[in-house]
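input
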Amino acid sequence: METVVWLWLYDRRWFFGIKAPSLLKIWTLPLFNNAFFFVSLFYYFLRHNGDNVQCFQDFESWIYMRLLMLTLIMAGIIQVYRETSKSTALEYNEMQTYKTINPILVKNYNYWITRKVLISFPGLSLLGLGLFNWFWIARGMNIVYNQYYTMSGCNAFMKNIVWGNLILTAILSLPVLWVFFSMILIKGTCIILGVISPSALIKLKKRTASL
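output
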C-alpha cells in the first residue's frame, strides 16, 4: 500500500485521477496496515511451536525477510512523515516572512513540498522498499503454490496469517497494477495502430481529444 500512496501523491493518475488527501494524514494508512501485518507474523513466529515443523520450515526464510521488510518500510514511512512535517513548517514560516508572495504559490505550495519529499533519499528509499516488497509477496505466493500439499498440514492460524499477508497486500496494490496494465494496453495499441494503420491512429487520437 505504501507504493500506491507514493505513486498517488506523485501523480494522481496512478489512482484514477482522484486527488490525494492530506499529505500527512495519508501516510497513516500504510503505516497501520504494515503494523498489522508485522504483529500478526511476529505473533505466529513466537507461537509456531505447535504447528507442523515442515510447514514452518517452508516459510521460515520468507517470514524472516517479510518481518525485516515491514520494519524497514514502517521506519521509512515515519521518516517520510517527519520530512513532510519539517518541510511544511519551513514553508509556512517562509510564507509568513514574505507577505507579498504570489497567491498561486501559496495555493500550490503543498504540491512542491510533496515532490520535494518524494524525490528525497527517504522518499526514494521507501519507493524501492515498496517495490521489493511486491517481489517478496510474489515469492510468497510462489511458495504457497509449490507447497500446496505441505500447507495442508499447517494449522488454520498459519494459513490465515500467510494468506492474509499475501492476499491483502495484493488487493491493496490493485489500483497501481490496474493503471499500469491499462497504460501498457493503451500504449501498445497505439504502437500497433501506428505501424498497421497510421490513419486509424490519427482518427482515434482526434476522437479521444474531443471527449
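quick obs: Residues 176-211 form one domain.
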